[in-house]
Structures are given as structure tokens and as C-alpha cells.
Amino acid sequence: MSPDPEADLxxxxxxxxxxxxxxxxxxxxxxVFYIDKGKTYAWFSHDHHGNGVTAVxxxxxxxxxxxxxxxxxxxxxxxxxxxxxDQWIAIRVDxxxxxxxxxxxxxxxxxxxxxxxxxxxxxxx
Length: 125
Known about the structure:
Blueprint (H helix, E strand, L loop, with lengths): L4 H13 L5 E5 L2 E6 L3 E8 L7 E6 L3 H10 L4 E2 L9 E5 L7 H15 L2 H5 L4
Antiparallel strand pairs: 1-2, 2-3, 3-4, 4-6, 5-6
């Protein structure tokens, strides 16, 4: 579990809210970042059901990408409970070598997967 989940959330919030038309709400007790009619692109998860993990949950392009990430680094990536594996991946941010530039890229890619055409055509992020 992260020694400072509030700092992790603040970092995620800074990344997620920098994207066009970003908004934040609480859903199922967790901070969620979304655009255009509630299309979610990032969640913050801390100690979900007592699992001791702090993670950022983002969209993936499909099951192949999800499986590749989990296979490559199972200690960092996992399928978040209650989320479809073909759509979402959890990235642990409570590990000592968390790469926040990588997290920012994954959040931006997730945003692009849900962004409406008008935002993408306007230059996106």
C-alpha cells in the first residue's frame, strides 16, 4: 500500500485534469476522471476491499494489450476487480520505482480511447 495515497492521488489529478474537457467525480467511493457524457478514462484505487494496493486504472485497447502488460510485469499490472479485462488495466503506483511519466502516457492514451471525434480532430491532447 502506498505510504502516501493522497500524494499519489494529487499526482494523478494533475495529470488527468490537464487533458481537454477533463472532469472529476466520485464513483463507488473512488475518484474518477471523465469527459463528454461521463466517459471515464481513469480511476484512482486505494486499498480496494482491503487489498493493500494503490493503483491507477486506465483503458486498454483490448484483451491482447491487457494480457501482454500483465504477462510482462505481473507485480505492476493486474485486472481490477469488477472491470472488464478487455477494457481496463490497473497499474500499481505504490511500488518504489513508479514511473509517473509512464502513468501520464497511459492516462493520455486512455483519454484518447474515450474522447469524442471533435476533441481528437481539434488536436486532442
